[in-house]
Protein: non-specific serine/threonine protein kinase
Amino acid sequence: MGDLDVLTPLINSQDPLCSQDQVPENPNAWGRLYPENESLKIEDLEKDNYKAGRQTNDVDFQFTKQCFSLKIMNHISKIHFTITREMIGNFGYVAYITDTSSNGTYLNDEKMGKDCRWILSNNDKISVVSKNNYVYTFTEKHADYLNFPEKVRKQFSVHGILGTGSYGEVRLAFDKKTSKSLALKKVKRESCIVLREPDILSSLSHPNIVNMDNYIDTNDAIYISLEYMPGGTLKQLIENQIHLKEFETKILLYQVARAVQYLHNRSIAHRDLKPGNILLSNQSPYCHAKLADFGLSKKITENTYLKTFCGSLAYLAPEILLKCKRSTESYIYTCKVDSWSFGVILFECLSGFKPFVGDNIEAKISKGSYNITNISNGAQDIIKQLLIVDFIKRFDFDKVLKHSWFEKDILMKQKVNNLIAEFSNDLNSSNMPFSKENVTKKIRFCPCLTNGTTSDAQCN
Structure:
């Protein structure tokens, strides 16, 4: 193969040889291939599957000796590469190129590898045998992510919106080389939390905390690539099932409690615990749960304290509301605000509604007055220990996990360990070399940003 690296087609240019003006636009086409070789022509993509190669039949785009020298033609496979598109949930289509050759297909001058499937994005250049042997430039008809910075588009194929919030939005994205699905979170540059979340997530490693792959810093925003959890949120699960059984609630909230204990042991307060920030591996109580959205999280040190009025109202601890009332005074609260929020979530899972709702919600939270029935004495007791107005008496997460309602349920703990192991195995399998069977067919709403979160401007 040595001298093939310098062989070139008869015509080779970094710009397509034909302009769109020369061929009328096909209204039924979802994409177009612009030729990089004078012997090829513009190809409108209407079907979901295309083949390119040197054989005379069963290919849509044929490479002939008019395109390349004989030496190169001898190394072009009968079917050298394929272009396909597949529907991904409700977020539209994703286009792929698969290298089916023996001697190499290149995308943007990078060799793919036989049977590897990469995502095609707008203005990607395709070459064969050698990176210099360009054949086509791919363009998408509906590329709604073209406004994203080049650094983002180079790494990810960005698709539909998963969630929005006061700080930005989350979109479904795919790594262009591995086809791994991700949640791409955009945080506006003017937001005071712009670098807080990636800084905190980069320091964490726990099976019940969402993983951060990387983040990209640009002029207007940062883009955080996060692990995609296809089961949506605990909020959706509660809405779909009205309420959960005690064993089901234990399975999910035991995992959340372990995650928050891990955070507190590292002097990090989450400050926005709620069902919408608990992500699930599938829309079932029997699944792997992970804590997400660390935009309001704060690491406590000798010189930093918790004093910001932030979080979601229905889950706010009384001491945070007290801080708001004493806005002219310096008032500091503790990590136990997460314990209160956890108690609200536990109440909501078991009853199907929040303990503090309606008019004068702040007064109800400040009094800590609620009613719950039809649950076990153990469940009532742990809620009672969490929804205590005096935070000094309130349970921390060491005590939560040692409470008999969790501690004595050996079957639940075994089930949790099995669910985490199963999800890890599935995740590892999905990151193997990409095949048609690996494609995510059903995408659920999986927000890492949700509406209803408040924060003051100082973000302390």
